[in-house]
Amino acid sequence: MAMNDLLTIGSSGLAAHQRLLMTTGSNIANVNTPGYSLQRTFFTADTLGGVRDGNTSRVLNGFAQAQMFRDTSTLANRNAYLDSVSQIDAIVSDDALSLSSKFDDMFTQLHATTDNPTALSTRELALAQFDALTERYRTLNEQYQLQEKNISQDLIEKANESNALIVNIADINKEIVASGGSPLDGDVAVLSDKRDQAINDLAELIDINTIVQDDGSTLVFMRTGQALVLQDDYTTLSMVDGDPDSTQKEMTISLAGSSRIIGHEEIGSTIGGLMEYRKTTLDVSRNQLGQLSISMADAFNAQNKLGMDLNGDIGTDIFTLPTFAGKEFLTNTAAGSISGSFISGKGSEVTPYDYRISFLSASTFEVQRYDGDSTVGSVVTGSIPPTAFELDGMEWDFSSGPFAAGDKHLIQPTRDVAAQMTVSMSQPEKLALAAPIRVERDLVNRGNATISIQSVYDTDPTTSDFTVPGGYDPAAPHQVVINAGGDYEIYDDSGTLLATAAAATAGQQLFANAVPPLTPGYDINIDGDVQEGDVFTMDYNTDGFNDNYNALRLVDLQQKDLVRKSLASTGDNKMTMNDAYASLVSFIGGKTSEARVAASAATSLLEQSTQRHNSISGVNLDEEASNLIRFQQAYAASARVISTAQETFQTLLSSLR
């Protein structure tokens, strides 16, 4: 068999080892280059002598690299969520921004009014505290609005970054395919590194999977299987106004002329983390803040209307409760809209949920509550007419029809009410600190019994015996007389017997226990020993300005359960204002803690997968230094082979002369 001559063999060895030296030098030069993978040049022995068919390729474990991509996405997702939730956690837990401190200031000032109910100075300070409290609500809600705006802008930027990376990956794929996958000079390895670095950067934005093709290209998919980069096409991501809530940016993905909306569960990574935080934490806690503001404002309104102000009138609202409007889905076929308001006196029934109304026909509909993305409770059904529909302390107005089957509407009643609530009372004398009713025992009574107001529960002139602006119906209970049997006989102002409460009632909740029961809007207790003929009187509290009965009831609101916990109608389903705010802070704090733990675990996983990938594909300087010496020696030896071949040839020529 013919053999290559010595010069050819030496030349092939010289070229081969020069190539090996170049590869080693490139590895050393790129030891700190992000995304660079270790390269190795391999040769095959020529059957005629020497080496041939050298190729340079990356040292890569596809499984280890794919695991690193997945762990990169997981950490990016948890970090995006953690960074966002940490911001709102710092805000709601900051003493300088806390509602709890404002609650304390407000009730401290209200307590001061109980010492001197007629003093305008303490009343003015109490009104100032109400104003300060509404300003604190607005400040907190503005922080929510600002973070929502920042997240929307961040999502737009992240979508643009993703698009740029997707296009870059597709372009590099084309270059690799165009090269025919030739590994002769290492260009494909460099291009592959650039593409994989782009894929890794994309993994920080979107949770992805990859498939390597025989032609050297890599296809990229979302974890749900949605294609991002194909052989001859790629997707485009866009942020669009939400439907029907335009403030909630939604992500769409377009491929081959088809477009659809994708949620945070599909997209994952940084973008998914931001979207998940917005839906499950930002919106939910923002609704809770709104619920608290409505429950608080309505409780103060209701209690103030149960008292008498400094003008001698029945109390009025302290706060103005905001109204709200529904949002129509773009797919609706009818032009109907829904508006709503909070029902006075039912603030403790308001929930922190969103509501989706789906019309089954033009006159029938279903209502489903939502807590973020999760449904809450069972479906509630309704029909129109009538056009007023009550649910959870709200009244919805359906008069702006028409509606059609398939129409859907979104109602977010508590989303921004914390910012919209205002103090409507401007005159301090309008604070109703006194009781509207005065009760007294006759001075000539033989018994030692005393009379007191058990409760005031209604001053509405349409449902009680009080009249406006301040008065008491003569036909209402005005006198209680003890008869021979110890029973409590109740008379109106003209002496007409209205009802009798048996002696066995012991004078407790006298009107409720009377036969027939009486509902003048308040009730009384008579405590102690009564004697036949003892008389007790009730009348409007005219000139009773020094009375602090209702001021004490306003102060008592601090300890009353006013905010709804759940949809349950019985059991422990209410909490105080302070407890409600503490629950909001705890909710966010819990989410922050969970995110911190998840981010820590994801960091460890990424470190492990990165170390594994780098142990295979990373450059080891000690190894490269050893190779440099070895290849240099082999290069010198190959050069010596060429030199020997030349000397041999010269010797041969000389012998023929």
Structure notes:
This protein is of the alpha+beta class. The chain folds into 4 domains: 6-59 and 618-656, no CATH class; 64-277 and 576-585, no CATH class; 327-411; 437-540. Strands 11-18-13-14-15 form a 5-stranded antiparallel β-sheet. Strands 20-28-24-25-26 form a 5-stranded antiparallel β-sheet, with no helix packed on it. A hairpin with a 3-residue loop joins strand 22 and strand 23. The chain is elongated and about 160 Å long.
Helices and strands in order:
Layout: H1 6-29, E1 39-45, E2 51-58, H2 62-92, H3 99-115, H4 120-178, H5 187-203, E3 208-212, E4 218-222, E5 227-229, E6 236-240, E7 250-255, E8 258-262, H6 264-267, H7 269-304, E9 319-320, E10 323-325, E11 327-328, E12 339-342, E13 354-359, E14 364-371, E15 374-383, E16 388-391, E17 394-397, E18 408-411, H8 417-420, E19 422-423, E20 437-441, E21 450-456, E22 466-467, E23 471-472, E24 479-482, E25 488-491, E26 497-501, E27 522-527, E28 535-540, H9 549-556, E29 563-564, E30 574-575, H10 577-617, H11 621-656
Antiparallel strand pairs: 1-2, 3-4, 4-5, 6-7, 7-8, 9-19, 10-12, 11-18, 12-17, 13-14, 13-18, 14-15, 16-17, 20-28, 21-27, 22-23, 24-25, 24-28, 25-26, 29-30
Helix pairs in contact: 1-11, 2-4, 2-7, 2-10, 3-4, 3-9, 4-5, 4-7, 7-10
Biggest beta sheet attributes:
5 strands, antiparallel
- Tell me the number of helical segments per DSSP (H or I, 4 or more residues long): 11
What is the beta-strand fraction? 15-25%
How would you describe the oligomerization state of the chains in this entry?
single chain
Radius of gyration: 41 Å
Q: Compute the average pLDDT.
A: 93
Number of strands: 30
